[in-house]
Amino acid sequence: MDKFPIKYIVFNGVYSPSEDTFLIIDYIKNMDFRGKRILEVGCGCGIVSLYVSYNGGNVDAVDVDYRAVENTRYNSKLNGLSVNAFYSDLFSEVKDTYDVIIFNPPYIEEEDEFEEDIAIIGGTELIIRFIRESVSHLKSDGEILMIMYEHNDLDRIFDEINKAGYRYTIIARKKLFFEEILLVNIKWR
Fold this sequence. Notes:
Layout: H1 19-28, E1 37-41, H2 47-54, E2 58-63, H3 66-78, E3 83-87, E4 98-103, H4 123-134, E5 138-149, H5 154-163, E6 166-175, E7 180-188
Parallel strand pairs: 1-2, 1-4, 2-3, 4-5
Antiparallel strand pairs: 5-7, 6-7
Helix pairs in contact: 1-2, 4-5
């Protein structure tokens, strides 16, 4: 990856950027976001939102964790960028429509053996809820970029994408030592 121009810190208890985060960044690093409205759902420390803002996007960033919202605000100021970060449980407080919605969900299934952590536990049910709620917030020519995990119920998720009136393309895969993650592009049919 090219030299990353953004400085950031991660507050205690906030999801630290990892392979899934950098898979998204690697895909969007050459995108021109000028004049586009972007929503990042589950912003964590805000690194993806910062990158989009750096590339000209008008960014709203939301998270269900107040610490993450504050972390994104802090990192936005640290870099002299404009990211409007606010609390929202997925789309609960979101009122607008967007050209691009980015979601790196907590994709680990609840039955997997991890501590209760909203930054990583959510899985298939959360992804399906996101897809259902997204239809009111994606512009007609917009797109969604979302991470999925090989252990999610991909058949159910892809069926839900089709039911919502979307089509999907798997645009990147990353094999890690214990899992494979997917970057999926979702657009209206």
